Amino acid sequence: SSTKTDGIHIIHLRDVESFDSLILNPIPQLNQYRNLRLEEVIRASEMRSKLSLESMNLNDQDMEIVVKLGIVEKQCMILNLTDNAITSVGASILSQVFLDNQTFKSLILDRNRILDAGVEFIARGLANANLCFRTLYLDSVGMSDTSCEYLAEMIRRNHGIIYLWLNNNEISDRGVQVLFETIKSCDCGIVMITLSGNTLITDASVDIICSAMFENRAFHQIHICNCGLSTAGKERLQVAAQQTSFILYVISQQVIKQLLPKNSVNLSSISDKATSTLKKSFKLISWNIDAFDTRNPKIFNERINGVVNVIKQEKPDAIFFQEVIPTLLDILKTHLCDYDFYAGNLKNYFVTIFTRRDVFQIQNHSVLSYPWTTMNKNLLTVNGIYRNSIEIDLMTSHLESCDSAVKERIQQLKFCFQKMMNAPKNRIVLFDGDLNLHDHELQQAGNIPAGIYDLWVEMGKKEEYTYTWDMQTNTNLNSSFPRNGFLPRHRFDRLYFRPATTSKIDFKPISFKLQGREMIQPIQRFCSDHWAIQVEFQL
After folding, report:
1. Which member of 432, 434, 470, 529 is catalytic?
2. β-pairing, 135-137 with 163-165?
């Protein structure tokens, strides 16, 4: 203290705790907020899985619990907060956990009034190229064109974000212009965006949307039903979609229902997040496509065209390829543009998994090299969500070949079985590939673990589908065997299925068959020396 006249200053000092002590020993909060029901739900959830907290009347304070227990401790991959009471304050709390989080893949904030301020927090948190985040749901959050500016910057910075749901907001043509300028420039990774129910969007947006369709071939799907588009505007979009093989939703479910016969399927329960068909099954094809046989370029090209034709005819939801080489991968990517792809590696020959972009949300993928390999073999796994509800792990491998590698092959098979068993119990696991396996080797490996099923066996062990490498009916390698000599055949390719055990998912195998058994007449060859396995599951 001091006075103006005496010039004396008195300073009072007292002992306080050090800064480090204050940090390490914070003052306890007497009224620390708790939500016991929320905490119980989170603690009961699986590690690294989907955390569903929709319609729990959660508020902004609850987001601190969600972050601490759900995102940090449980490392949830998908967080569903639909239909709660979260505002921009809660969005701010959520956004702080995004930094360098390599687990979190999808956030669903539908029907929470976070408004533009909340979208800004989320977008800034996700504008990080180091994140593995994939899908953001912002339906009915009260956002306007201002939020589109934040989101455009987000997808420019983070090309990993590929799905963006923005239905039933207050977006107008200005917001569409901002978003689609970024999409059109290919300066982002977006493959699908939904804008249905934004009634302020008019024909003024048609030009920029069409430009994005033509100029960004990775951009593949848009939902724009129940907006302010005229019939002429919708027709222009439909023409552009047909020219680019684009998936376009421009007619509402109500209109579709009016156009259907009276006894047709009930669409009342199908949301705008429905996929491009009403198909009630999941189809998988697995195929060793023998990319090594490149001696005759014409024959090679005809064989690969045959493979592509089978895929396009059958339209599987997922494809496992074995014996792929880099030049062939480029061909497959060009022809199978409806699919995302993942490769075991890009050297020599390798395995790949292709997933349909319009039905799969990919959470993660991994490549695990076998410790016992002498042929650079590995296990490729893709973790995804099918049709927004079914969590599936897709696994493929090409195990060590030849009799001299029996020991390594058995160890690799046991490794794959263990990975199937260790997958979270709420997930379906499908493992297929060219396993080069004989039945006696399966016995040496300890047989199939309980809870895992060989689908050829489960579907009746039909004789016509027994041998996937059959030199008695497949003549591609005839020159490798002596005339009138023994022609071998084996069930080298096998598909194993582990159903989910903690959720009531109807995922029942209904079909097992072999594909690629029609000879390509101009070259008198089959697509490959292996038949493809095709399985179908009822949903």
Report:
1. 434
2. parallel
The answer to whether residues 92 and 121 touch, using CB atoms and an 8 Å cutoff, is: yes
Alpha-carbon span 392 to 272, nearest angstrom? 22
* pLDDT tens by residue, 360-391: 988 888 899 888 777 888 999 999 999 888 99
How far is residue 463's CA from residue 28's CA, in Å, rounded to a whole number? 71
Q: Do 202 and 212 contact (CB within 8 A), yes or no?
A: no
pLDDT at 258: 41
What gap in Å lies between CA 179 and CA 531, rounded to an integer?
Answer: 45
Q: How far is Cα 331 from Cα 336, in angstroms, rounded to an integer?
A: 8
Spans of the chain below 70 pLDDT: 1-31, 100, 245, 251-279, 482-484, 503
What pLDDT was estimated at residue 276?
A: 40
Q: What is the pLDDT of residue 274?
A: 37
How confident is the model at residue 121, as a pLDDT?
95
Predicted pLDDT of residue 427: 93
User: How do the domains of the chain map onto residue ranges?
Assistant: 19-259, 281-538
C-alpha–C-alpha distance, residues 309 and 163, integer Å: 28
Q: Which CATH superfamily is domain 19-259 in?
A: Ribonuclease Inhibitor (3.80.10.10)
200: Cβ contacts below 8 Å, ≥ 6 apart: 170, 171, 172, 173, 227, 228
Three-state secondary-structure class, residue 72? helix
> CATH says 281-538 is which class?
alpha beta
For the question of residue 529 being annotated catalytic, the response is no
8 Å CB contact between 39 and 68: no
76: exposed, middle or buried (Cβ count in 10 Å: 0-12, 13-18, 19+):
buried
Fold agreement (19-259, 281-538): no
Q: How many CB atoms lie within 10 A of CB 329?
A: 17
Read off the tokens for 308: 């592509």
pLDDT at 3: 47
Half-sphere exposure of 186 (CA within 13 A, CB side): 5
Cβ-proximal residues to 486 (8 Å cutoff; 6+ apart), any chain: none
